[in-house]
Amino acid sequence: MFSKVLFGRFVPTNSLIHRLDPRAKLVLSLYFIVIIFMANSWQTYAWLAAFTLGVILSTKVPLKFFWDGIRPLVWIILFTVILQIFFSSGGHVYWAWGILSVTQFGLVNGVYIFCRFLLIICMSTVLTLTTQPLMIADAVEALLKPLAKLKVPVYELALMLSIALRFVPTLMDESQKIMNAQRARGVNFGTGSLIKRVRSLIPILIPLFISAFNRAEDLATAMEARGYSGGEGRSKYRLLHWHRADTVACVVMLGVTLILFELRYLA
Amino acid sequence: MHKMITVQDAVYSYSDDEHLVLKNITFDVERGEWVSIVGHNGSGKSTMAKAIDGLLKLTSGAIEIDGTALAEDTVWKIREKIGFVFQNPDNQFVGATVADDVAFGLENRHVSHDEMVAKVDEALHLVHMEAFADREPAGLSGGQKQRVALAGVIAMRPEIVILDEATSMLDPEGRQEIMQLMRELKQTYDFTVLTITHDIDETAFADRILLIDDGELVAAGTPEQVLTNGTDLVDRGLELPYAERLLNQLNLLHIDVPQQYMTNDQVVKWLCQKLNSSK
Questions:
Q1: pLDDT tens digits for A162-174?
Q2: Nearest C-alpha neighbor of B161 from the set B169, B172, B149
Q3: Is B270 inside any structural domain?
Q4: One domain for residues A170 and A206
Q5: Within-domain flag for B269
Q6: Sheet with B60-65, side-by-side order of all strands
Q7: pLDDT digits over A99-153, tens only?
Q8: Residues 202-221 of A with CB under 8 A from B
Q9: Mutate which: B108, B119, B136, B194, vs A, most A CBs within 10 A
Q10: Which residues on adjacent β-strands are paired with residue B193?
Q11: What is the pTM of this model?
């Protein structure tokens, strides 16, 4: 049931991309997603696609994992592309029926949207496959730190995030156990009408909820016993190090952007 | 002798309840002593342990740790002296990885990064978990998680270590391992140890045993003193130690057994003597 979750499916191949600082990876992948929207011609899309492919290959992660990232979103992609094709207007009209029409612009837009989806999914998959969730949490904390000045509880948010991540596998294990325990008592999951299926989830959710409360209580006591009295002023065991490779990665991304703009205005 | 823990007339009841969980418990623990609190489930042992660490506020009574009275303004100071290992290995694991978890207490005390790395490495080495430093808790066994919890305690160099049923969720092997490890660490660091358990065999290393039943301290003394009264233990919902059970069975077979309490080793010795003399 949960094995399809891609988040946190870190694949350790120790490639160049793996060793980058998580802050760099997080910022650069978000940045890349933004500049994808700057692309407006086949040359620009080709350039970004080539770059993405290069990044994917350099992670040394088997391509199957990327396909796993795309697969659950195939229907959304198809739906959006078809919508674009049939409802856009402009340019040469190839086919029309009522409000539906296939036009030159529509087709082009459809292809662009398709490329955009693909690139965004691939790039974010690169981030999650090459970075441990824990590292992403650290990066988020580091990037939010300036907000502490605006009275945003950054330390608390970071602690919440890291505890949540730490308990994801534990709670998944537990829900699997509860499911099996309820099955052994005759609860039938995944059959019957929609309402019946939803109702059969209750014997999983309630015990899981209660046990989460017990865990929270235990954890809070254990944290207090170990001297936790608030996030402010704690020292940090895990430090992030910015290496030369990270600066190089930023420069490369800048180069990619410059070439993108070059192609955009050339066309 | 220097008193490490002093408990005076401890009384506790959960706020909405008339029922007293602790009833006038008084005892003290000396520096370097290993004291075991035993009692069946629900007898108030864990409540006592939490009260000592200031995690629960007593309804009445006083607790003194190393000469300092436990109060609202001293509680954090006192917690620095106490290392606490709880029952559930999963629920007390705060860190995302083993090393992070060991470092958690040090982070709370503003220890500098370099010092922290050295202390974490050392503590993991002491519990033989250095190979697991970057592992996540999901990949560890229960015994390994408890060893990590123990490492987290050692890294902070407390003077008192409280094990609150720390082995009750482990298999017999893991249990042995943790208790043996605790004994070695006690010798190295001269901890004062307070273990809380309902498993009599776990009191094997204790200097003194406190027997708690239904919130009352019903017996206190050396293992010989407390465990000789076998029937007393059984009446209070506890099991006899292994050696005692063996001797009782022999007694049923009309074999003369010595009346005083004996440890496993002593029983082995006695059996050898008995067999030799009957030849």
A1: 888 888 888 988 9
A2: B149
A3: no
A4: yes
A5: no
A6: B22-30, B3-12, B60-65, B68-69
A7: 777 888 888 888 888 999 999 999 988 888 888 888 888 898 888 888 988 988 8
A8: 214-215, 218-219, 221
A9: B108
A10: B34, B161
A11: 0.81
Distances, alpha carbon A33 to alpha carbons A117, A192, B233, in Å: 10, 42, 69
- Domains: count for chain B: 1
Are A113 and A192 in a shared domain? no
Rounded to whole angstroms, the Cα distance separating B145 from B147 reads 5
| DSSP category for residue A109 | H
Tell me, yes or no, whether B153 lies in a domain: yes
Give domain status of residue A39, yes or no. Answer: yes
* Domain contains B221: yes
Q: Select from A215, A235, A236, A239 the residue whose CB has the most chain B CBs within 10 Å, as the one to mutate to test that interface.
A: A235
Q: For A21-57, how does the pLDDT look when each residue is reduced to its tens digit (9 = 90+)?
A: 889 999 999 999 999 988 888 889 999 999 999 999 8
Beta bridge partners of B11: B60
CATH of the domain at B234: 3.40.50.300
The boundaries of the domain holding residue A64 are 16-131+242-266
Contact B93 A166 (CB under 8 A): yes
Domain hosting residue B158, numbered range:
3-240
